[in-house]
Design goal:
Largest sheet: 2 strands, antiparallel
Radius of gyration: 13 Å
Oligomer: single chain
Order of helices and strands: HEEH
Structural class: alpha+beta
Strand order of the largest sheet: 1-2
Strand content: 5-15%
C-alpha cells in the first residue's frame, strides 16, 4: 500500500481544519485539542485531532451528497 505524499497529507489536513473552523471550532495548541468557539475554554467539550478529523470527514461527505 502506497503512503500519501507529505503534500497530500497536509492538503487533506488543511481541508479538515478549514471544515472544522467553518463549523465554529478552534484548535488549542496548548491543550492539543479542538473545541467550540464561544464556550469557556475550561468548560468546552474537547475533541482530539483524530476525533475532530473524523467529524470533518463526515461533514465533507454529507456536503458532497
Amino acid at each position: 500500500m502506497q503512503m500519501p505524499s507529505d503534500n497530500e497529507f497536509y492538503e487533506k489536513r488543511r481541508k479538515d481544519w478549514d471544515t472544522l473552523i467553518r463549523l465554529g471550532y478552534d484548535h488549542s495548541n496548548q491543550a492539543d485539542c479542538w473545541y467550540p468557539v464561544g464556550i469557556n475554554d475550561y468548560e468546552a467539550p474537547r475533541m482530539t485531532e483524530e476525533q475532530a478529523r473524523a467529524l470533518a470527514h463526515m461533514i465533507q461527505k454529507l456536503e458532497e451528497e
